[in-house]
Design a protein that fits this description.
With 491 residues, the protein is α/β, with parallel strands linked by helices. The protein is 36% helix and 19% strand. It contains 16 helices and 20 strands. The strands form 5 sheets. It has a 7-stranded mixed β-sheet with strand order 8-7-16-17-18-15-19. The protein has a 5-stranded parallel β-sheet with strand order 10-2-1-14-20. The two termini are 13 Å apart. The structure holds flavin-adenine dinucleotide.
Length: 491
């Protein structure tokens, strides 16, 4: 059977490895880190456990489909818990916990924001149609202009509100500013501002309510661990501590890879899962690239980065599983991080207190607290070594003030900080832009690097840098689309 080399063991690489190993392909997956999962891996500090990156898992049926295609049942590998309410939103002096069920939510909104319940219903009715129009685009390849111009894409255009931003779409339906933000802040899930993110992505808040937000017991890292198990069950090889140093290219054909230890491995096909811009700039000489040269990559638009604090707290916190704290001026904050490149003075903060649902995350009577603050990527000139401690202090004081949990800081037993510099240097993310290229139409579908990579023969892409885009469900779809194309190319 054909031998497939996979560069990177993040969710994209592992999903592709799982699908192809199940079809009998010989899988050789090389991961640079000592662990698998990439940004969807776990972080252990003493007896406190954290997810390194993703904490919000939507559309589990997409991953279930991948497991089915691989002859497996996701439920045999992970135990999913659903969140209801979905999360807690903290605005200035006001707290909103949206229920998952759309009818219940409508009543809840009507109680809290009189007259807006009906607006919520309208928003969901319209967004349901938008999702129906978008699904064929997301589920299929976009490797040629013909794919892009296909009827299904054209027909979807009026529905997906190309000319509007996510905030403008929310503002069409809701009068209250807090509701507008509650139905557009999800742009942050893909590293963008609601004031810039295309209106098509208003499917994100709809998806949360329609399909729920899920938490695998043990964290989202369990998803990547589960896929790695399946790969091994099918006889695939996963090598950790085994970075790829360069692609071996003859004319435009890639015949294998050279590892960091100098070893050369030949294969029939190579699947790249490493962050796309990072992979191009480190694994392939600029002179060998025609379309994605360094200067082209520098000019692309990238998503924001994240400043992270992982803290082990020595008593049980009374916080919900997911909490979003909004800045007083949310628009200004988003501008600071996406346009101005400033260290925000009043940041929005996301907290995950997994211990609330999942007792495996911390020792008994204690809490694991994951804190994520969207910040500018490394195209800004911020010196994070200089700023880190002051910014950390600001974050803790906002949390204490806005959640009402006083004096947390004196209960920190363990703490780790990850800055945008660390994402770039230690996790191999180009410019620390954690969600890859921004999701503007000019960088989506045909205009994103293709699953069947256009630059070289025998090279395929999976992960946030290719079609359909960043975020776990789309990354899983990228693996399904790529694996399908690769298999078709052999028939
Ligand atoms: C803080 C944070 C929070 C996020 N939250 C969410 C969320 O809640 N929900 C959601 O759906 N998505 C979220 N995401 C986005 C996205 O789902 C994850 O980042 C996801 O892990 C990206 O998957 P990937 O396969 O594209 O890349 P990665 O996970 O980065 O995997 C790429 C792998 O390639 C490896 N690699 C790189 N270079 C080499 C090399 N030369 N040789 C061998 N291996 C190499 C890397 O070490 C890594 O393991 C979040 C991301 C971050 C960073």
């Amino acid at each position: 059977m054909q031998k497939i080399i996979i560069v990177g063991g993040g969710p994209g690489g592992l999903a592709a490895a799982m699908l192809l190993s199940a079809q009998g392909y010989t899988i050789e997956l090389y991961e640079k880190q000592p662990y698998i999962g990439g940004r969807t891996s776990s972080l252990q500090m003493g007896d406190f456990s954290f997810d390194l990156g993703p904490t919000i898992f939507c559309l589990p049926h997409i991953l279930e489909r991948l497991f089915q295609l691989s002859g497996r049942n996701l439920k045999d590998y992970v135990d999913l818990k659903e969140m209801d309410p979905l999360y807690t939103l903290i605005f200035d002096g006001f707290c909103f916990r949206p229920k998952r069920n759309i009818e219940e939510l409508e009543n809840q909104i009507e109680r809290l924001f009189p007259g807006e319940g009906i607006n919520c219903r309208r928003f969901f009715e319209h967004t349901r149609k938008k999702l129906e129009a978008l699904l064929p685009i997301l589920e299929n390849k976009h490797d040629s202009v013909i794919d892009y111009l296909r009827c299904r894409s054209i027909r979807a255009l009026p529905e997906i509100e190309m000319g509007k931003t996510m905030y403008e779409v929310a503002a069409k339906y809701f009068k209250d500013e807090r509701l507008r933000q509650a139905f557009s802040f999800q742009a942050k899930y893909i590293g963008m501002s609601p004031w810039e993110c295309p209106g098509a992505f208003s499917i994100l808040p709809f998806i949360e309510h329609e399909y729920g937000i899920h938490h695998p017991i043990g964290g989202l890292n369990q998803l990547t661990k589960a896929m790695a198990r399946v790969v091994k069950e099918y006889g695939g090889n996963i090598y950790t501590n085994s970075g790829v140093n360069k692609l071996i290219i003859k004319d435009k054909q890639v015949t294998g890879v050279q590892l960091d230890n100098g070893e050369i491995v030949h294969g029939d096909e190579v699947i790249l899962n490493a962050d796309f811009a990072y992979a191009m700039t480190t694994l392939v000489d600029d002179s060998k690239r025609r379309k994605y040269k360094n200067k082209v990559l520098e000019k692309k638009k990238y998503t924001c980065s994240t400043f992270m604090i992982y803290a082990g707290i020595n008593y049980p916190l009374s916080l919900d599983h997911h909490t979003f704290i909004f800045s007083k001026d949310f628009k200004k904050y988003m501008q600071d991080i996406t346009k101005c490149g400033n260290v925000p003075k009043d940041p929005s903060i996301y907290l995950q207190h997994a211990t609330a649902t999942d007792k495996t995350r911390s020792p008994k009577g204690k809490s694991s607290l994951y804190i994520l603050v969207p910040v500018p990527n490394n195209f800004s000139n911020i010196d994070w070594e200089e700023e880190k401690l002051t910014f950390r202090q600001l974050i803790w004081s906002i949390i204490e003030k806005k959640t009402g949990v006083h004096n947390i800081q004196s209960h920190i037993e363990m703490e780790k900080i990850i800055t945008p510099n660390n994402w770039e240097k230690d996790h191999f993310v180009f410019r620390g832009a954690n969600f890859s290229f921004s999701h503007y139409f000019s960088q989506l579908m045909y205009f994103r690097p293709h699953n069947d990579f256009e630059e070289f023969q025998n090279v395929w892409l999976v992960g946030g840098g290719t079609h359909p885009g960043s975020g776990l469900p789309t990354i899983f779809e990228s693996a399904r689309i790529t694996a399908k194309l690769l298999m078709e190319s052999h028939h």
